[in-house]
Amino acid sequence: MNTSLNEKTHAVNKVFEAVFDGKMPSRVPILTNIDNAFCLEYAGYSLKKEQYSIEKTLEAIDVTTRDFDGDTVLGITIRLPQLYKILGAKNFKMGADGFLQHPEVRGMEVEDYDAFIADPVKTLWQTILPRIYEELNRPGFEGQKVLAKAFFTFASSMAALGEGYQKIAEKYGRSTYTMASAASAEPLDTLSDQLRSFSGISKDIRRCPDKVIAACEALLPVCLKAGVNPASSRYNRTFIPLHMAPYMREKDFLKFYWPTFKAYVEGLNAAGAGANLFVEEDWSRYLDYLNELPENTLMVFEYGDSKEIKAKVGSRHIVSGLYPIGLLKSGTEQACIDKAKELIDIFAPDGGYIFGFDKAILRLNDINPANLKAVFNFVHEYGIY
Question: Which residues does the UniProt record annotate as the domain Uroporphyrinogen decarboxylase (URO-D) (predicted)?
């Protein structure tokens, strides 16, 4: 805990810490996942031009943090267009309006499994990454120069952003905790997302199941290394988006997904890093499994029955999400407030609840900003214990 933080920031941090420690907080905290693209558009900047500027990005996040009474810095940058341009990335492409899209890519072929299982890091560096990032294929020193420039751009940009977030948090008395101190997918999602692709891994599960299992086991220590950094703690948590499981049969989930996913979250816990799971799509079939994860795992749900989720995981874990951002776009202010009240009434009793949305807010047209302001104000007033 940074004792130099101002009094208000320190107090908001303590609200989150109480929840993460399994204690009753003074009120319901608010944790949101809002993209810097939303911030830039809200501040009136050109997304296509200004997202390349760390300075303009921080100015925009300052504006949204000032205008919306959340508990954290309102805006996070997870995609750096300058980095993808340097690398010649295939996995993130800028649309005509400037928004970075993630097309389905495949950096690993079936014939790469044996080498990947034997040494996943070597195979990633020598075979897979050059397929995804075309500029790494430049010969000799040219390719090394691209890599060095990419590392410098990433490190310097993230350092500047981190310093900027800290200043904004203290300027407006917001928490220094965010959705993610680190981010890393669990093994099967890592294998499917950008290595084999969704369609590729779906075929592999049928055609070479033993290799899929072995690849997940080989990836586990790599994912753990990516998911823990020097700042990690049960307060500065690792963000884990969960992708494949809702599209799998339960017997396949138990065979291919669950063993290394559970081991991954347990490994983070053993390393002192809390986990923030983004439980994408509908995990209703798997709630009993989620309840087996280390106590006080934060689970941000996209869909599901609120009362069932509260009953099955709410007494052991921290629940968030489920508030539909679609309502913020099209609903009346009163309808938006009523939904917030409904979720607080279900989840807040006995603690273990953080108010949040079902999806990340990516663009300005995803919501009506007036509704977002009204909901934040209501949660602060109504969510007092």
Answer: 196-382
Closest CA to 45 of 60, 27, 66, 26: 60
The whole-angstrom separation of Cα 293 and Cα 256 is: 17
Q: What is the DSSP string of 120-147?
A: HHHHIIIIIHHHHBGGGGS-HHHHHHHH
Q: How far apart are the first and last CA of the chain?
A: 24
- Give dist(CA 178, CA 180) in Å, integer: 5
Q: How many residues does the chain have?
A: 385
Residue 228: per-residue pLDDT: 94
Percent of the chain with pLDDT over 90: 90
pTM across the whole model: 0.94
pLDDT (tens digit per residue) in 318-332: 999 999 999 999 999
Crossing angle of helices 140-172 and 54-67, in 10° steps, is 30
- Judge contact between 137 and 143, C-beta under 8 A: yes
| pLDDT given at position 98 | 87
Sign of torsion over alpha carbons 168, 172, 177, 183: negative
Distance of CA 336 to the CA centre of its chain: 24
Work out the burial of residue 189: count CB atoms within 10 Å of its CB; fewer than 13 is exposed, 13-18 middle, 19 or more buried: buried
What gap in Å lies between CA 204 and CA 221, rounded to an integer?
A: 22
Amino acid at 371: N
- Tell whether the torsion through CA atoms of 34, 85, 191 and 117 is positive or negative: negative
